């Protein structure tokens, strides 16, 4: 594997060790793109009681970071142009680290300020990674996208699983939330020496962003990213409640979601690697979207005895959806800066849509008192995502 870059200094041959270090750095950055989101859930009740938050206020703690992913994603290309991609990623990682510390140790104001800052950092770093992959590994886009998507899912699963035990062992929920600053700072320390020779500013074309806004292909990719993300956050936010209403215990419903999340790490690795070998990814989009829709409906309407296999099907579908959305950003882009700008567009709009999904489900459930209309809503979102995914998967380049 060789690493190609756009500047004369970095386009020279580099050692295998430098390539491996960059891959490790990408993995470490990806590992830090979800713990700030998934670590708060297990402790939300404890945090709310400690800070005297009502349920409506507490819900903002989980919604605000997701909204920030969309609101601050567009800042990534601008920051990269000003200071370069390596430095921009370091800034994003420091924002994540400071954000998780603020959440734990500075009361209600720190909780919300930290959620805002951490979500902004995640939004910026997440937008930058596809451009780095396009620039440094243009011939291995599927493999590298699969690796960092698997790391992203793995980070989410780890944080969801170990934050509560950390709180119990330390006797402090603040420590359990703040501890996630350590891997963020570690990632920054490894990233800078590994990626400091990369510089996508040289490949910037000022009118790229304008062209993307008028491109049907760019909007198809954006809607696929946004709608599949909406399904993912809707499922993670409401599936435990759905299962509990069907008679599943609180502990067991959480375990089902955890299993589905762990399955995502496998499909997130292999789906983009295999899909990138084809010039057209439509069959892959069809397969993983049908798995997602079938998994959701199976969990909601199938016999309780079948919830475990449906959880696996759902995990395969959702892990593959997210990885395919990311790899199509890389495959459909003609150069690294286009990939960075498309990533910003897709993720900024996408995560805004993703935050609206759980909100709509909560309102529908409150009005109807059941889940039937929710199931139809999720199915409709899935079908629209499928349509846009099939358009985005055609062999074309921006």
Describe the secondary-structure layout.
Elements: H1 8-11, H2 16-31, H3 35-38, H4 44-51, H5 55-72, H6 75-83, H7 85-105, H8 107-136, H9 141-170, H10 173-178, H11 181-195, H12 208-213, H13 216-245, H14 250-275, H15 282-301, H16 307-331, H17 336-368, H18 372-392
Helix pairs in contact: 2-9, 2-11, 5-8, 5-17, 6-7, 6-8, 7-8, 7-11, 8-16, 8-17, 9-14, 9-16, 13-14, 13-16, 13-17, 13-18, 14-16, 15-16, 15-18
Provide an overview of this structure.
Keywords: Membrane, Transmembrane, Transmembrane helix. This is MFS transporter. The protein has 398 residues and is mainly alpha-helical. It folds into two domains: 184 residues, MFS general substrate transporter like domains (Growth Hormone, Chain: A), CATH 1.20.1250; 186 residues, MFS general substrate transporter like domains (Growth Hormone, Chain: A, Up-down Bundle).
Keywords:
398 residues; mainly alpha; Growth Hormone, Chain: A; 2 domains; 18 helices; 0% strand; globular; disordered N terminus; transmembrane helix; transmembrane; MFS transporter; MFS_dom; MFS
Largest sheet descriptor:
none
Name of the CATH class of the largest domain: Mainly Alpha
What is the mean pLDDT? 81
Based on the structure, what is the oligomeric state of the protein chains? single chain
Strand % is under 5%
SSE pattern, N- to C-terminal? HHHHHHHHHHHHHHHHHH
How many whole angstroms does the radius of gyration measure?
20 Å
- Say how many strands there are: 0
Form type: globular
Compute the number of helices: 18
| Share of residues in helices | over 70%
CATH superfamily of the largest domain: MFS general substrate transporter like domains
Keywords: Membrane, Transmembrane, Transmembrane helix
Organism: Tistrella mobilis
GO molecular function: transmembrane transporter activity
Domain Major facilitator superfamily (MFS) profile: 214-398
């Amino acid at each position: 594997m060789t690493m190609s870059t756009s500047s004369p200094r970095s386009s020279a041959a580099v050692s295998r060790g430098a390539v491996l270090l960059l891959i490790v750095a990408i993995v470490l950055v990806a590992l830090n793109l979800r713990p700030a989101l998934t670590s708060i859930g297990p402790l939300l009740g404890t945090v709310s009681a400690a800070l005297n938050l009502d349920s409506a206020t507490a819900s903002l703690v989980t919604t605000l970071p997701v909204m920030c992913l969309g609101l601050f994603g567009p800042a990534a290309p601008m920051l990269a142009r000003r200071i370069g991609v390596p430095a921009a990623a370091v800034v994003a990682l420091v924002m994540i680290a400071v954000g998780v510390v603020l959440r734990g140790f500075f009361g209600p104001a720190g909780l919300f300020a930290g959620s805002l800052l951490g979500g902004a950092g995640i939004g910026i770093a997440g937008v930058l990674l596809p451009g780095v992959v396009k620039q440094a590994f243009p011939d291995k886009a599927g493999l590298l996208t699969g690796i960092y998507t698997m790391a992203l899912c793995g980070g989410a699963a780890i944080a969801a699983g170990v934050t509560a035990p950390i709180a119990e062992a330390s006797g402090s929920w603040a420590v359990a939330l703040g501890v996630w600053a350590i891997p963020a700072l570690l990632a920054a320390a490894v990233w800078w020496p590994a990626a400091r020779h990369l510089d996508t500013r040289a490949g910037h074309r000022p009118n790229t962003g304008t062209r993307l806004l008028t491109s049907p292909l760019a909007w198809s990719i954006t809607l696929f990213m946004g709608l599949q993300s909406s399904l993912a956050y809707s499922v993670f936010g409401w599936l435990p409640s759905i299962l509990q209403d069907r008679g599943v215990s609180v502990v067991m419903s959480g375990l089902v979601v955890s299993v589905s999340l762990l399955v995502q790490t496998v499909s997130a690795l292999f789906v983009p690697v295999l899909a990138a070998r084809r010039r057209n990814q439509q069959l892959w989009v069809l397969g993983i979207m049908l798995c997602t829709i079938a998994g959701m409906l199976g969990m909601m309407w199938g016999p309780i005895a079948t919830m475990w296999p449906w959880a696996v099907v759902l995990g395969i579908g959702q892990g593959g959806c997210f990885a395919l959305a990311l790899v199509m950003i890389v495959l459909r882009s003609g150069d690294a800066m286009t990939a960075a700008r498309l990533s910003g567009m897709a993720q900024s709009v996408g995560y805004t849509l993703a935050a609206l999904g759980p909100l709509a489900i909560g309102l529908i459930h409150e009005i109807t008192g059941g889940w039937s209309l929710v199931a139809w809503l999720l199915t409709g979102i899935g079908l629209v995502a499928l349509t846009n995914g099939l358009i985005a998967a055609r062999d074309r380049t921006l």
